[in-house]
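Quick one, probably user error.
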């Protein structure tokens, strides 16, 4: 079986890149022949016929997100009668529908197998085109690495005790909310720190966050770890944290489609605080291993942090529940679902 796989990148520090990298790696382990087409820096028009040749020699075309990769897949394969699958991660499968691309994307989604990575992503797309049939398959997760690897803890130990967030410094990650929540908590918890790991430390949003920190007088208790951090060091930060918080928001149809970082936190045995109206409702289980709060509500977020930190029994319960919950997202289980879909499509062609 030959799959032509279109994605923006395989950068594992980015959610979409991590999803693509892990899925392709495990498809190959499962015996699937995959040709990667990375569109981030690819001149599509210049490579039109090269890509079309790859499509022609493939059994299935699998694109990540409706825009632009689903569009490329549909356009370049016109006349080839190839089956196309689009996995919809989040923002770039929803936001483009609220623009001049609307009619093009309705054409793209016609007679294509559509898969969303969360119920929330599915619901957001169906607001635009209610009649679409969409299957939900969550991202897979490398449990073997997270459970078995030796963590590099040297850097993390400098900040203990701390709460942790992981994700690029973008407004939709909701850091302006979690930092304000931490300010409330910090006034009553003298030795607690807040560590935020994510790229974008020189952005306008980063400067806004630093302004909030300065206003509250906690420059020496909120720490940004920027740039690229290797997985063993990242694991060290997860394993030494008190809890994980990422209260993402929806802004202009930009939202958290799922959030693999929630699985990383769960695999590390962390209680999780996340927000409603996001992919976190699929990536965590409310009142089991997570507390969900309304978006842009620092007070409710602070209350959730206090609730976990002040109750050792609850914290341990949520820790154990996280370790159980993440087993549902075994990479092998998720990869098998895609392989079954591929086999079903080829059997019916």
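Nope, works fine. Designed sequence:
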């Amino acid at each position: 079986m030959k799959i032509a796989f279109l994605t923006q990148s395989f950068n594992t520090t980015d959610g979409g890149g991590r999803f693509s990298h892990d899925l392709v790696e495990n498809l190959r382990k499962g015996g699937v022949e995959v040709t990667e087409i990375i569109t981030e820096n690819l001149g599509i028009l210049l490579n039109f016929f090269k890509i079309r040749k790859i499509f022609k020699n493939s059994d299935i075309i699998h694109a990540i997100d409706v825009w632009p990769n689903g569009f490329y897949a549909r356009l370049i394969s016109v006349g080839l009668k190839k089956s196309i699958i689009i996995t919809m991660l989040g923002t770039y499968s929803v936001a483009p529908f609220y623009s001049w691309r609307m009619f093009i994307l309705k054409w793209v989604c016609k007679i294509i197998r559509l898969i969303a990575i969360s119920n929330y992503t599915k619901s957001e797309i169906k607001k635009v085109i209610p009649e679409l049939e969409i299957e939900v398959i969550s991202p897979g997760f490398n449990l073997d690495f997270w459970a078995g690897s030796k963590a590099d803890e040297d850097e993390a130990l400098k900040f203990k005790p701390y709460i942790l967030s992981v994700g690029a410094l973008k407004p939709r990650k909701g850091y302006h909310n979690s930092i304000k929540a931490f300010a409330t908590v910090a006034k009553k918890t003298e030795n607690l720190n807040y560590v935020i790991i994510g790229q974008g430390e020189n952005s306008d949003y980063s400067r806004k966050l630093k302004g909030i920190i300065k206003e509250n007088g906690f420059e020496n208790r909120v720490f940004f770890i920027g740039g690229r951090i290797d997985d063993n060091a990242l694991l060290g930060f997860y394993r030494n944290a008190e809890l994980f918080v990422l209260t993402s928001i929806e802004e202009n149809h930009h939202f958290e489609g799922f959030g693999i970082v929630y699985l990383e936190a769960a695999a590390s045995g962390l209680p999780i605080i996340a927000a409603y109206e996001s992919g976190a409702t699929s990536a965590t289980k409310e009142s089991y291993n997570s507390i969900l709060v309304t978006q842009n509500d620092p007070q409710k977020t602070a209350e959730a942090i206090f609730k976990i930190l002040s109750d050792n029994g609850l914290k341990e319960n949520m820790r154990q529940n996280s370790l159980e919950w993440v087993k549902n997202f075994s990479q092998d289980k998720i990869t098998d679902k895609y392989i079954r879909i591929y086999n079903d499509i080829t059997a019916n062609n």
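The chain has a mean pLDDT of 92.
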